Amino acid sequence: MIDTPFLSRRQLIAASIVAALPVPALAARGQVVTILGDSITAGLGLPGRDALPNQLHLALEKLGVPNIVRGAGVSGDTTADGLGRMDFSVRPDSAVVVIALGGNDLLQGLDPKATRANLDGIIRRLQARHKGVVLAGIKAPPEIGRSYASDFNAVYPALAAEHHVALYPDLLAGVARNPALNQGDGLHPNARGVQIVASRLAPVVAKVLKQQP
Questions:
Q1: pTM of the predicted model as reported, rounded to 2 decimal places
Q2: What number is the average pLDDT over the span 161-176?
Q3: Residue 90 in contact with residue 126, Cβ under 8 Å?
Q4: What is the pLDDT of residues 52-79, one digit of tens each?
């Protein structure tokens, strides 16, 4: 339920993504995983079957873990945007939430301290709702500036340790900068790249799912 009528276009898009999914029918087929993310989660440039939510679902099924993966990704979202919409983007039936945000903070050169504060807020609110959490990091390349990259890259492991949540250190590990695994923009994985992301992320998510009541 969204209490205020004064929502931004981005929030309305996010809310419509979530509202379109029939929860009772889905919940009978396994625990629900929600990916709170940006354009990579939203599947920019890809058909739905090739996007991360569906590919993570298939990867978990291969591990023998019944599941429903719900994509709550909005292209262009920063960690601040994710924090602002998470209360209605993460529905009550979600057992585990994968936080896949930060790439746009990096692209915009936002202060890593702000990124950390936003992610900290998301984790705290999810834990207050008794959700399992997987924090998916993004690695900053050294050419962005060694000091900035060092500060940014330290955010994710520090938060995972502080809040005792599962860490997947680099969402795009094995995919970033490989032309064969990315779309023409060099930033967004293609279908094969997403399959690799999903297959590597799935064991971490499966472990957290099995820990949920």
A1: 0.88
A2: 98
A3: yes
A4: 999 999 999 999 999 999 999 999 999 9
User: Do 100 and 37 form a contact (C-beta atoms < 8 A)?
Assistant: yes
Look at residue 182 and give its three-state secondary structure.
Answer: strand
Residue 98 sits in a domain whose CATH number is: 3.40.50.1110
CA atoms in the 13 A half-sphere facing the CB of 73: 26
Q: Which residues are annotated as catalytic?
A: 39, 185, 188
Q: What is the pLDDT of residue 213?
A: 84
- Return the DSSP state at 164: T
> Max alpha carbon distance in the chain (Å)?
49
If you average pLDDT over every residue of the chain, what do you get? 90
What are the Cα distances from residue 115, in Å, to 122, 197, 205?
11, 22, 23
4 domain residue, yes or no: no
